[in-house]
Design a protein that fits this description.
The protein is α+β, with helices and mostly antiparallel strands. The protein has helices at residues 8-12, 18-25, 38-51, 88-106, 135-140, 180-194, 240-244, 270-275, 278-285, 322-325, 370-378, 409-412, and strands at residues 74-82, 128-134, 171-177, 198-207, 259-268, 337-338, 341-347, 353-363, 387-397. Strand 7 and strand 8 form a beta hairpin. Helix 4 (88-106) packs antiparallel against helix 6 (180-194). The longest helix has 19 residues, at 88-106. The chain is globular. The two termini are 36 Å apart. Its main location: other.
Amino acid sequence: MADNGISRRRLIGTAGATGLALGAAGGAVGYAAAPSDAAADSAGSKAQLASLGADQVMFHGKHQPGITTPLQSRGHLIAFDLASGAGRKEAAALLRRWSATAERLMAGESADGGDTAVARDAGPSSLSVTFGFGASFFSRTGLEKQRPSALDPLPDFSSDHLDKARSNGDLWVQIGANDPLVAFHALRAIQKEAAGTARVRWQMNGFNRSPGATARPMTTRNLMGQVDGTNNPKPSEKDFDKRIFVPSDGDPSWMAGGSYVVVRRIRMLLDDWEELGTKAQEAVIGRHKSDGSPLTGGTETTEPKLDETGPDGKVVIAANAHARITRPDQNGGAAMLRRPFSYHDGFDGKGEPDAGLLFVCWQADPMRGFVPVQRKLDRGDALSEFIRHEASGLFAVPGGAGKGEYVGQRLLEG
């Protein structure tokens, strides 16, 4: 933010369209990109680096940003509880303020009034801000009749060790950007706008590999070193919208174009995991660690041969391998769009890393997306021995705001 009303965007020039092109193509949301020759890879990587600050995500649209937006390198997840005495009227005013602030910051402009100038000199940097409502929001605002049945509590799972203080919440905000200062600036602006209306219940900070760090776009890796996101649904698939977004005639009507997000803080027991050799790790996952290809051969995008057996007569991809259990065709077609961030919050009292995955997944109905897959994992995923679910949240994320509207307006003014 420059002084005298000069925007971040003007300081670096007009924002380019690279981010929009990637978003339309499915680009870096964990999807595998087609390989190209080395020269093209190098040129593409340099162009990507040159445009990082200029990339802009649109605030207005049929869907909120931050769902199919290419995965950013920095993220903040925040849940708020409404303050005592705050109800529907105050919540509507807050969402109006939040939406106006998000629109300005995503365009690379200053926040209104008292801008901190944390992101001075930076462009939009693919900033996206996404808003959602927790189940408790509806009772707090007298809107119980508008609460979707899809927000019914998630079932308990054996791997759950949930901290209630870091779970759920009345309101949820997801912030992503390809510059840490741009992301932090948005976080501070959102927190400041909430003063007097809502207080922070919990906050989680995450990261991913930076765009341009690899010679060509690649599926991201998690902190276990595994390629993570190979089987993500792709916008190019004909049933993508049906799986991820609430239809226009969905119930309730205010959720048309929206989606349901499940957020899980999944701690990875890295000391235990790293004691395994590479072959043992690959057996747990069912894929090669080097390139994400199935143990039955091919490339990352090759379909695993689940019936293939080895010289010992046993299936190559074990019955409890993570890659087998999570396949949609092994779960009645259940699918969700995973859009996670890794996290590292230092070390615990035993000296073990407090690190893992901020699992964020999107679906039109969590009972047909997250729940059946997690139930299957709960019954015998080899990876379960090395992870622990420590926090959880489920939120209704309404459709995008039209020009002149704010997010959630159809609910709060309907």
